[in-house]
Protein: ABC transporter permease
Amino acid sequence: MSTADTADRRRPPVLVVVTLLTALLTVLLIAFAWPAARSEPRDVPLAVAGPQSAVGQVTAALEQAMPGGFAIEPVADRESAVQAIKDRDVYGAIVLDQTAPEVLTASAAGPVVSQLLTQVAGKLAAQNPAAAPKVTDVVPLPADDPRGAGLAAGALPLVLGGILAAAALTNFAKPGSGRVLGAVTFAATGALALTAVLQFWLGSFEGNYWANAGVIAMSIGAISLTLLGLEWLIGTAGLGLGSAIMMLLGNPLSGLSSAPEMLPTGWGALGQFLPPGAAGTALRSVSFFDGAGAGQPLAVLASWLVLGLALCGLGAARSRRVVQARHQGSPVTV
Structure:
């Protein structure tokens, strides 16, 4: 039997290839389109300042207009509402002042939610034209990127950066500490480059350049080290599985283009425990809110970094056992 005949027998039937490609395309569509198609407010934290009776009326009106859309947090006055926004406890606020009603937004926390609150202000104005509320953006996005397009688009490069780093190091670097050092170095250099583009060229970031770069470096490092460790332990399947989780779950569920509370129930919360979602929330906090609300997402990124290093350590230990077994001529156990 010729080599060509053997190779032909090893190739899967065209129908199988087409079926797998169709399934992959369908999964990609669901992963990226489903969260966007089902985007709507779900328990979005919203402060309301004013008399107790008025707060109750507004709460009831919002619940009737958007059932389950807002989680109302009563506050004492406008100053308290502004502070709650800056502390990232709420996305915005409604100030029920009879002489000067006002809707407070924070486009830096999420432009989609900010637009939603602006619509709420329009509905309040329609109900009482004589006391139409004004809209104030308490924490606006930068003037160079008023829609937050740079930050939203940055989610994909963060994920791809980690995946490409793991794939390249797996193929071109010998197993060992060199791969880990390469991943850490790339995370640092890649973060410095991405942050420079987003902050100094596109104007999508504010705040401290090094702090923003630190968050991005943690994100790229968390992804690349985790994928390296998985490949080290279980081979190509581990790299593929990890990449699929980061790309098909982490990226569309990050909430960077809207907000976690705008995603289907439960999925937005899940996205915040994956590196892309945690990185997006931490970047908003560090860049626009002086670090307020960054504690949990930074802890998530740190946990993924530790997990990645642990997986790499386990992979290195497995490699040593394999080498020792080969030298001793005994069967290799995993």
